[in-house]
Write a structure and sequence with these properties.
This protein is of the alpha/beta class and 343 residues long. Helices cover 45% and strands 15% of the residues. Helix 12 (257-269) links the parallel strand 8 and strand 9.
């Protein structure tokens, strides 16, 4: 059975009764076509089922209608943590609305960094959205060399990022302010021995949340702080350390909900009742984690999906030539404490 030939630009022009050049301008989004003609072209495109050749169109528009999403984490972490799913959902919604493809790139080692660099420098995408960076990550330098427009998820932590905001625009939440609100809530409950499970301290979000904890409690004893890694297992390890070092603790502020879920398991194992003996607060308000915790988790809400959507929107506005010079280079979204049974 022979396959039907794909409709051509010439076939669309003949159906619409216009020139091939007019069809090309409409298909490529050129605003300089009268609306009556553009409508005829769109009808012809729909009737014939014409699909533009993206490769040919990119030669004309110098756009690829594709954006790389670079996550500086191994795939085992990305697919196990609902944070990344929420952020990707926000990005995907915005890109889909603009008919732009999402290309997911993950990094786990030096070979992956080199592969990502070659891909970005190869002219395959209109820009990159990058998140979950670590302070010693080579990706920022690789991206600069690739010379692609970039928006970062989270405040960049390398030294020259703060000096040139336009070179490193980012979307983040108020990590420090949210942490302060969490700890003030625990103190307001009458808790006098509040410990903190941090995230990985080579990431700015974890550092900012630790700083928020210290803003409220001052120069706390280091034995009340244990480093986690934003995973349930890391939360378990840190909680065991804290119980061994400070058995009189009566409250826990965990740097994210997954760490808090690990802490809750260890507290249960050790016979500590939550919230009667120990109050627990997390960060993120990822509903599958926070609502299904035992007990349901009091936490600081950040709009993770909205962060992803805003990252994509910022990148595409720059790509599409919209005037963004008068707008702030960076966006920091507010947070809010969500009270449930754990504190």
């Amino acid at each position: 059975m022979t396959e039907e030939p794909r409709p051509t630009l010439e076939a669309v022009a003949a159906r619409a009764g216009v020139s091939r050049a007019t069809v090309s301008r409409v298909v490529n989004g050129d605003p300089g076509v009268r609306e009556t003609l553009a409508e005829r072209v769109r009808h012809a495109v729909d009737e014939l089922g014409y699909v533009p050749n993206r490769a040919a169109r990119s030669l004309v528009t110098r756009r690829h209608d594709a954006v790389a999403v670079v996550i500086a984490e191994p795939e085992t972490r990305v697919f196990a943590d609902p944070f990344f799913a929420l952020q990707l959902r926000g990005i995907s919604k915005e890109l889909t609305a603009r008919d732009v493809q999402l290309v997911l790139l993950l990094t786990e080692g030096r070979d992956d960094h080199e592969r990502v660099g070659r891909y970005l420098a190869g002219g395959h995408v209109d820009g990159a959205l990058v998140f979950s960076l670590h302070l010693d990550d080579p990706l920022p330098g690789i991206i600069r060399c690739a010379a692609v427009p970039t928006v970062f998820g989270g405040r960049p932590g390398w030294p020259d990022a703060a000096a040139d905001e336009r070179a490193a625009p980012y979307v983040d939440c108020d990590n420090r302010g949210g942490a302060r609100e969490a700890v003030r809530h625990l103190v307001g409950l009458g808790r006098g021995r509040v410990v903190h499970i941090t995230g990985p301290l080579d990431q700015t979000s974890a550092v900012d949340r630790l700083d928020g904890y210290r803003d409220v409690l001052g120069d706390v004893d280091p034995c009340l702080i244990a480093e986690g890694d934003f995973t349930p297992a890391g939360g378990e390890r840190a909680m065991r350390e804290l119980l061994d070092r400070a058995p009189e603790l009566d409250a826990v502020f965990a740097a994210n909900d997954l760490s808090a879920s690990g802490a809750l398991r260890v507290l249960r194992e050790r016979g500590r009742r939550v919230p009667d003996d120990v109050a627990v607060v997390g960060f993120d308000d990822m509903l599958p984690v926070a609502e299904q915790a035992d007990p349901p988790l009091t936490t600081v809400r950040q709009d993770i999906e909205e962060m992803g959507r805003l990252m994509a929107r910022m990148l595409l506005r720059g790509r599409d030539g919209e005037d963004v010079a008068c707008e702030p280079a960076n966006v920091v979204l507010p947070t809010a404490l969500v009270r449930r049974a754990s504190a």
